[in-house]
Amino acid sequence: MTGYAKVSLCGNDGARAGRVTPVRRWPPYGPPARRGDVDSRLRGNDKWVKTMMSGRRADGLRVGEEFAPLEFHVSEEMNENFLHAVEDLHPRYMEGTADGPGLVHPALLINFSNNTRSPSFYLPPGMAAIHTHEDVEHSGPARVGKRFRVSWKVTGRYERRGREYQVVEAPIVDEDGVLVLTRRTTYTYTGGPHRGADGQTE
After folding, report:
1. CB atoms closer than 10 angstroms to residue 116
2. Could you report the per-residue pLDDT of 126-163, keeping only the tens digit for each?
3. What is the pLDDT confidence band of residue 195, given thresholds at 50, 70 and 90?
4. What's the pLDDT score for residue 7?
5. CB 162 within 8 A of CB 195
6. Measured between alpha carbons, how far is 2 from 88 in angstroms, rounded to an integer?
7. CB of 143 within 8 A of CB of 101?
8. Pairing relation of β-strands 179-190 and 163-174?
9. What angle do CA 46, 116, 122 make, to 5 degrees?
10. With left for phi above 0 and alpha for psi between -120 and 50, is residue 87 left, alpha or beta?
């Protein structure tokens, strides 16, 4: 994968004026892939192309299987826009230090580590992923201006009260291969063959 996804969360004018107008952009790739589409982020990687073309649902991944990784670049502008959006303008994010540029806001990294960000993530209409548990471990500073890579691996599955749960581990490394964050998230799914379809409840 050679490209890096960039997402602007609000326009420059709105951010500087304190008016936050969220705008989701997906250049240069367009919106997330639908079933049967080959997301351009996957081209050249036969493994993930086959996964997408098969229309395999995210809830079907078993222990040891992975979602396609994502690479992204956090520019100074992108980080600043996010800071205005969450109203957290602490100097550690806005200004550089003797140790290097400002820090990437951790919530931005967490946002990019949702498994729905994976180019191979797929759920059909009528299904949804529900986030049920979260564990985030910070291993080192993430510096503005660097490129990052997030990968997702299913590390556990279990059933409770008739509902299936999927545990996904998502480490993020910077362009130097240094681990900056590891996220362990538990998901359950609703709709389709799962509880929640056609008005079903617990």
Report:
1. 13
2. 899 999 999 999 999 999 999 999 999 999 999 998 89
3. low
4. 35
5. yes
6. 32
7. yes
8. antiparallel
9. 55
10. left
Report the C-alpha gap between 186 and 168 in whole angstroms: 6
Q: What is the mean pLDDT of residues 55-74?
A: 92
Q: Which residue is it, tokens 């059909």?
A: 124
| 193 CB burial (10 A radius; 0-12, 13-18, 19+) | exposed
**Would you state the structure tokens that stand for residue 134, as one six-digit string?**
């979260």
pLDDT category at 171 given cuts 50, 70, 90 is very high
> ω before 28 within 30° of 0 (cis)?
yes
Q: What is the mean pLDDT of residues 49-57?
A: 59
Tokens found for residue 44: 């050249």
DSSP the chain: ----B---SB-HHHHHTT---B----TTT-SPPPTT---GGGTT-HHHHHHHHTT--GGGPPTT-EEEEEEEE--HHHHHHHHHHHT---HHHHS-BTTBSPBPPHHHHHHHTSGGGSTT----TT-EEEEEEEEEEE-S--BTT-EEEEEEEEEEEEEETTEEEEEEEEEEEETTS-EEEEEEEEEEEESTTSTTGGG---
